[in-house]
Amino acid sequence: MFRRFSALSLVAVVPLTALTLAAPAQARAPHRTPECQGDWLPATPTSGDVMSGKLSFLDLPAVTVGKDVNWRLDPYKNRSWQMVFQSLRWMGRLVADYEATGEEAYLGRAEEIAKDWVADNPYGGRTTSPYAWAEHPIALRAPALVCLSRYVKAGWLTNSLALHAKLLSNPKNYELGHNHGLDQDIGLLRIGCRYGNPKWKNLAVSRMVKSMKLDIDGQGALREQAPRYAIYVHDRLRVAVDTIKDCGMKVPSALATRWESLPRHISAATQPNGYMVPIGDGPADVQPTAFDHAKSTVQVFNAGYVFGRTAWNDPKSAYYSIRFGPALKFHGHEDHMGVTYYAQGRSILTEAGFVSYENTPYRRWTLGPEAHNVPILVGRKFRGHTPTALVSKSVRTDRQAFTFTDRAYGVPRKRSVLVNHREDVMAVLDSGGGKLQNLWHLDPALKVVSNSGGRVVVGDAEWKASIVQLAMPSCKPVGGQRVVRGQTSPYQGWISPAYMRKEPAPVIVSPVATSLLTVVVPGTDRPEVSCSGRTLTVHTPAGSVTLRASSSGTLS
């Protein structure tokens, strides 16, 4: 999210030229400093790239900027590219490498870049880049300018840092309970420490504690509704903690506790193949490094997640996720009641995922329920920002069951999910106040082998899995499933495997019914399914699984 500050949002009580800051030390021989070293620096572009005027961000092709940079460049019409460009962290890389190598040309070019940016982007100027004073670039740019100030003593730089501090400290501009707010606090703290301003330092740390207690709950779950952002927040909190220590301040215990609790959420959201489950604004190619995990193989987070697996540290473990909880915000999607399922070393049910933040028809589709494995009430309007409740759960080592309800379509909607381990089976029972259908987005590695009689068989080489659908309460097979792949009007049958990428992938669109039971059986193309009343027996290659669908719409 980007927001450009209005000129009215700047508290202009004291003219900028009258703002008094303690002068930084005189330029000196380079040595590694806390301001210029650390995890805040990007890996790309390198100093060599910057010196040659070639900038590559977000794995997009390099853009040549030349010596006199055009700060209104927007080559890819991409807000994320603009944010990184305007942050000047790539300029900070030059200063960091100057400290490491003593290469004077790096420092000289860094000063040229920063001075040119300040001259070409006056606050509120008519020709200023639209993203120059957006809230996130301000936050990320502040530490880069602080780093430069270790070696450059000039009024234009001191005044610019003063302006950055005023904007960052203005409560009207603060992103409370959000990763951007954390970056704003880090930027303000760095400026406050550099110039010995206790007001800015204390505000940054106290605000940081309040913000992170809102962003990370007592269970260690990030509330931004995209687990991959927990990695970003965890990394940035490490930078925040290091910055607090560099400033000679005490790290608040509440902040340390929240930081230390995040790894359990990150590990829970990581599939057995090492990649994070693509929930919310989370690409499917995010692969966390080793994070500590809880002992429990099943974790329910009040922030709106169920994560379960048969075992830790086993790539053949079965794994599933289910979404529920608070209404949509920040980086979430309309994915409540959505499930994913991984078993026998393969992703079976997945999500359309995240492609970019650009407001395109495809991006809008990925946000909506049709891009997720959810029940849809036919003929009723979807009501976004509706919370979903977890109304019952049963957690055993070999089997777990959960039931969820909401009114996302104006009438009751219910989904009950049962996952059986060892004999791998996932069963999902959908019901509600009217006709419904559900969607099952398959991993793009899977191909549809057959589709008939209410049974869709998918496969990957010799391995097969079956998705069987039954009408309830009759427990009779219901046919008529459609498999859609690569449809564009409207969008359906797509997966985003990585940022700015999408590829066709099969999605099963169920027939319309009043109640549907979907059974996913990994490892076979011929599962035997038999019913006796509301009791269902599924015969898998590993053995039989018996489950019951109650008249109230729950599985056990």
From TrEMBL:
Alphabetical list of Gene3D superfamilies matching this protein: 2.70.98.70, Chondroitin AC/alginate lyase (1.50.10.100)
Domain of life: Bacteria
Protein name in the entry: Heparin-sulfate lyase N-terminal domain-containing protein
Cell compartments where the protein resides: Periplasm
Gene Ontology CC annotations of this record: periplasmic space
InterPro entries cross-referenced by the UniProt entry: Chondroitin_lyas, Hepar_II_III_C, Hepar_II_III_N
Domain Heparinase II/III-like C-terminal: 325-504
Keyword Aminoacyl-tRNA synthetase: no
Ranges of residues in domain Heparin-sulfate lyase N-terminal: 62-299
A Pfam family per the record: Hepar_II_III_N
Keywords from the named record: Lyase, Periplasm, Signal
GO molecular function, one term: lyase activity
Signal peptide range: 1-27
Presence of the UniProt keyword Signal in the record: yes
